[in-house]
């Protein structure tokens, strides 16, 4: 089959690779119809992730048609149109039974590698190296889906592929951001990042009754989308003093909930603050949006970290967390907990996502599609491939 | 409940000679003989009751390669979280400190922990999750 493979730092190519095969009784094989790019792919693309090997297939946010099922698969049959949660989780361990699917104990084939990186093994994720399971990605004609009854969900007709594909990862991540933040009616919510996850966090906050939702970014076309589709107010962080603006718009209190949905920091962002300009810009990442969120949040408020920071961060305002009594949350999305509900919201037009698929390309144009996405060129929010 | 010891081989530390060069001599304890202190327990919590973890006292299949090399211990986990399943090598501590052994892939603790995890996965899900086969192991075939 054809697949989009990582070839080395910054290099991708569409190659012929072996078809996936059933490896466990609870597996199934899906013919991929749509597969989206995601900010979590960018550290992989840049070659900053250990154990990624040349030839590995990228992609984890996808939708497709079932073509083959293992003997233990009960919920799906060939011909079903399914969206597949990006997180690989068993559904049987203690964490899955608490709804903490991304923390699954059994979602990886090499848990020792995650243990070395993070102290404990976590659930798997398609299109990532062995620390997250070592499963091939979805930017391909076919994909293997382990624990198929747990991770795949039938898409109701006539829900459009370009709307439903975001139920795989971006929509549950955004919903979880609002839920972890404990967004309640009347809250002021600030969201850093107007990419797909940021916009869907804003939509989720609106649906949970937030009085004001303020989205912060520097790309005008993304900010316009947040206004149109999430009913959010917007701030261009290069044109205003964000903390001062947030104080002014929240009665001097600061937002009740601050969500970081920036993901990988763009090149050059590390010089945004005086501390960074004066200090050594070394190997540790600067969590600029998280810092601003902690600084801006009201006393006793909640800060949620959704972006993918691959390793260590420096100059983190820990004192502010303590002095203001903040609650700090972080998680990869527990999609299995939210996807059925999100598909219902999508089917009722209460959650719209198709506008995020700004660039819809055949898989053969994978390298060009990632270039658009990485560089935010041509107004690209997400590139969605059709293998 | 209780301890299930199987006598047998002590886990090998075959690369010991190669690793000694990595160890700072001042920090090493005197090597007048093998360290007879018991090795550290490696533990996983299995989200099932003890009778499902070792049904009839039988070791689950993924643990059997360690038969004779480790002793097992299990007890109910607090808070209704299932069973704490522990294992440690028979025959005392390995000669090498953990990091040095780990660097050369000769860490009995890591091997036991990985095996315990496979056993846990087998008990909780009914099978051990298998990785995709390497591209080198199979040909490119059109579906």
Automatic annotation (TrEMBL), chain A:
Cofactor(s) annotated in UniProt: Zn(2+)
Source organism superkingdom: Bacteria
Domain Alcohol dehydrogenase-like C-terminal: 196-266
KW Metal-binding (keyword) present: yes
UniProt-listed Pfam families: ADH_N (PF08240), ADH_zinc_N (PF00107)
Location of the Alcohol dehydrogenase-like N-terminal domain: 26-150
Keywords on record: Metal-binding, Zinc
Gene Ontology MF term list: metal ion binding
Keyword Zinc attributed: yes
Name assigned to this protein: Threonine dehydrogenase
Lineage: Bacteria, Bacillati, Actinomycetota, Actinomycetes, Micromonosporales
From TrEMBL, chain B:
Domain of life per record: Bacteria
Classification via InterPro entries: START-like_dom_sf (IPR023393)
Family matches, as Gene3D superfamilies: 3.30.530.20
Name under which the protein is recorded: Uncharacterized protein
């Amino acid at each position: 089959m054809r697949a989009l493979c990582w070839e080395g730092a910054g290099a991708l190519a569409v190659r012929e690779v072996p078809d996936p095969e059933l490896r466990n009784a609870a597996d199934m094989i899906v013919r991929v119809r749509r597969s989206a790019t995601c900010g979590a792919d960018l550290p992989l693309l840049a070659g900053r992730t250990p154990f990624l090997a040349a030839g590995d297939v990228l992609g984890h946010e996808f939708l497709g048609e079932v073509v083959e099922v293992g003997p233990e698969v009960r919920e799906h049959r060939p011909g079903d149109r399914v969206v597949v949660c990006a997180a690989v989780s068993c559904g049987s361990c203690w964490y899955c039974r608490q709804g903490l699917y991304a923390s699954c104990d059994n979602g990886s084939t090499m848990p020792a590698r995650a243990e070395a990186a993070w102290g404990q093994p976590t659930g798997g994720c398609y299109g990532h190296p062995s620390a997250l399971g070592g499963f091939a990605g979805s930017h391909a004609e076919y994909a293997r889906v382990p624990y198929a009854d747990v991770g795949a969900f039938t898409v109701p007709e006539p829900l459009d592929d370009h709307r439903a594909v975001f139920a795989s990862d971006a929509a549950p991540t955004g919903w979880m951001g609002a839920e972890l933040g404990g967004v309640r009616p009347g809250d002021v919510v600030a969201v850093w990042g107007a990419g797909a996850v940021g916009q869907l966090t804003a939509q989720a906050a609106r649906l949970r009754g937030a009085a004001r939702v303020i989205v912060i970014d520097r790309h005008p076309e993304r900010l316009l989308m947040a206004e149109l589709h999430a009913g959010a107010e917007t701030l261009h962080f290069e044109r205003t003093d964000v903390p001062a603006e947030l104080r002014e718009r929240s009665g001097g209190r600061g937002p009740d909930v601050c969500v970081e949905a920036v993901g990988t920091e763009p090149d050059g962002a590390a010089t945004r603050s005086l501390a960074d300009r004066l200090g050594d810009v070394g190997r540790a990442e600067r969590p600029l949006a998280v810092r601003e969120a902690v600084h801006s949040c009201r006393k006793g408020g909640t800060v949620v970290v959704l972006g993918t920071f691959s390793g260590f961060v420096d100059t983190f305002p820990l004192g502010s967390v303590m002095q203001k009594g903040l609650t700090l949350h972080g998680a990869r999305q527990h999609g299995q907990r939210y996807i059925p509900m999100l598909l219902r919201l999508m089917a009722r037009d209460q959650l719209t996502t198709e506008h995020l698929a700004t660039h819809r390309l055949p898989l053969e144009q994978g390298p060009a599609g990632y270039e658009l996405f990485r560089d935010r060129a041509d107004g690209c929010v997400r590139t969605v491939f059709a293998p | 409940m209780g301890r299930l010891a199987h006598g047998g081989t002590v886990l090998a530390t075959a690369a010991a000679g190669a690793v000694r060069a990595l160890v700072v001599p001042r920090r090493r304890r005197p090597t007048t003989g093998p360290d007879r202190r018991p090795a550290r327990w490696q533990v996983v919590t299995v989200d099932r009751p003890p009778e499902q973890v070792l049904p009839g006292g039988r070791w689950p299949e993924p643990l059997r390669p360690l038969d004779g090399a480790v002793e097992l211990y299990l007890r109910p986990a607090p808070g209704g979280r299932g069973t704490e399943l522990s294992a440690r090598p028979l025959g005392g501590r390995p000669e090498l400190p953990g990091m040095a052994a780990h660097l050369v892939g000769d860490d009995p603790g890591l091997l036991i922990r990985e095996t315990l995890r496979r056993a846990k996965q087998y008990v909780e899900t009914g099978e051990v999750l298998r990785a995709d086969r390497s591209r080198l192991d199979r040909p490119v075939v059109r579906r």
